Amino acid sequence: MSTTSLAATRSPLHSSIRSEWLKIVSVRGQWVALAAVFLATLGFSVLMSGSFTTEDMAKPDFDPLRSAYYGLNFGQIGMISFGAIAVAGEYKTGAIRLSLLAVPHRGAFYATKLAVIGALSLAVGLVTSLTCFLVGQALMDDHGVGLTHPGALRSMVGCGVYLALIALFSAGATMLVRSAPAVICTLIPLLMMVSFIVGDLEDDGGIADFLPDRAGQQILLQDPVGPLSPWAGLGVLLLWTCAAVWAGWVRLQRRDG
To answer: Which residue, 57, 98, 151, 238, has fewest beta-carbon neighbours within 10 Å?
Structure first.
């Protein structure tokens, strides 16, 4: 294939990616949501890490890894909002019709939108997780651990991937229902309360262990308990995300903008 032909082949894809990038970076609400991910996760994590007493950290069940990411439960609200707004904005303004005219192939349109959302959320997630880990461990003094500690690097990378999957989960769900408020009001209780309620009703975890948040957050634990290993738990969250993305794809195929 000649250089000209290759450029012609790549041009529509590059244009689509550039278009999706501009849609996101030009909306202030998107940056506010991503900033909230970092600030909320770090802020609550610092408050928690700094509040541990020597007695708390000396307990056999104290987990210095999970403790550094305490604010994740609050920071993920920002990721839910980011994923939802990134998709719903076009439907709210009617710009989706112009987007589909510019990129007639809906598969390419959807894939590039998810790719940009995923790349941005992963970048912010990794910066957030690294900062939380380093600051949190420093606040725990002698009880803190380094990145060479067993499970430390896995938890740090896993935290970033967890946040990216939450954003994509939200994006897929929003493509399905086409309403950011509906998705936000559904996913926040699901990811912050349902697993705790279901877990309290069950003696040995059961269904609660396979809900998105509890399964995905296995990756943060130094010594995970329950039926899922750290990566298996993240795999369960990936399956939830794939289901949401697939449902959004079916809706996009069957309905016009």
So the answer is: 98
Q: Which residues of 190-210 are buried (b: 16+ CB within 10 A; e: fewer)?
A: bbeebbeebbeeeeebeebbb
Dist CA 219 CA 162 (whole Å): 8
Residues 139, 45: contact at Cβ < 8 Å? no
Counting every residue, how long is the chain? 257
Q: Is 39 helix (H, G, I), strand (E, B) or coil?
A: helix
Give the CA distances from residue 54 to residues 57, 140, 146, in Å, rounded to whole numbers and listed in that order.
5, 9, 18
Task: State the residue for tokens 């991503």.
Answer: 34
Helices in 178-229 by DSSP H: which ranges?
180-189, 195-201, 212-216
Compute the distance between CA of residue 42 and CA of residue 7 in angstroms, rounded to an integer. 43
CA distance 168 to 81: 11
Q: Which amino acid is at 60?
A: P
For every residue of 140-181, DSSP letters joined together read TGGG---TTSTTHHHHHHHHHHHHHHHHHHHHHHHHHH--HH
Q: 0.85 exceeded by the pTM?
A: yes
Compute mean pLDDT per 10 residues along the chain, 257 residues long, and list them: 45 72 81 95 91 85 91 95 90 69 74 93 97 93 88 96 98 93 94 82 75 95 90 97 96 74
State the Cα–Cα distance between residues 254 and 176, nearest whole angstrom. 11
Q: Please name the residues in contact with 36: beta carbons below 8 A apart, sequence gap of 6 or more.
A: 75, 77, 78, 81
